[in-house]
Design a protein that fits this description.
There is one protein chain. With about 220 residues, the chain is mainly alpha-helical. It folds into two domains: about 90 residues, Endonuclease Iii, domain 2 (Orthogonal Bundle), CATH 1.10.1670.10; about 100 residues, Endonuclease III, domain 1. The chain has twelve helices and no strands. Helix 9 crosses helix 11. The radius of gyration is 19 Å and the shape is elongated.
Length: about 220
């Protein structure tokens, strides 16, 4: 059988087309009301599942869903509400402090630049990328564990780091596709190309791209 996808651009084009067919809609997995609640939800999602975050945020929003209100809550109260989420003590401190800084530095609004977002406690590049892309529509390509793993399995990157993976994916796909595509890859990774369910030889896309692949693909974390 002839492999039509021997080059990265050919693989990228197939992946973008197939994922758009599978996931025409790209709802944000984290429940939120606005840019601020999305920011807090993404901070909470680090090393935690989206479903776990979605279970605690209604109780948190009931107490405070604006920076000014959150900044007035005791850290202990925030920690108690989010206690089932991983790293709750650290996240509670970060949420309260970033809320205070939003009020103090930004008039209670979520800033619209990567630099200002990444200056907030608990906000790294990936979190800033999610907020910039999903709250403000700025092209960004947040790379989580699913995307990092799949990009390696699909030979879109050598995958030595998430930073390299982000750079490589941005070079392969047009900027106007990034915001929806990163969600589609996440959806596919969770549903079909999971860490244990597919080793690079099982799911539809892996089998289509590499029909002759016999060995499992070892991916870098």
């Amino acid at each position: 059988m002839t492999n039509l996808y021997t080059s990265k651009p050919a693989r990228a084009a197939f992946i973008a087309r197939r994922l758009a067919e599978l996931y025409p809609e790209t709802p944000i997995p984290l429940d939120h009301k606005d840019a601020y609640t999305l920011l807090v939800a993404v901070v909470l999602s680090a090393q935690s599942t989206d479903s776990g975050v979605n279970k605690v945020t209604p109780g948190l929003w009931a107490r405070a869903d604006t920076p000014s209100a959150m900044a007035q809550l005791p850290v202990e109260e925030i920690r108690e509400v989010i206690r089932t989420v991983g790293l709750a003590p650290q996240k509670a401190k970060a949420i309260r402090e970033l809320s205070r800084l939003l009020v103090e530095r930004h008039g209670g609004a979520v800033p619209r630049t990567f630099e200002e977002l990444e200056a907030l406690p608990g906000v790294g590049h990936k979190t800033a990328s999610v907020v910039m892309s999903q709250a403000f529509g700025v092209p960004a390509f947040p790379v989580d564990t699913h995307i990092h793993r799949l990009a390696q399995r699909w030979k879109l990157t050598a995958g030595k780091s998430v930073e390299q993976t982000e750079r490589d994916l941005k070079a392969l796909f047009p900027p106007e596709t990034w915001n929806r595509l990163h969600l589609r890859i996440i959806f596919y990774g969770r549903e079909h190309c999971t860490a244990r369910g597919c080793d690079g030889t099982v799911c539809e896309i892996c089998r289509t791209l590499f029909p002759g692949r016999k060995r499992a693909v070892k991916t870098r974390k």
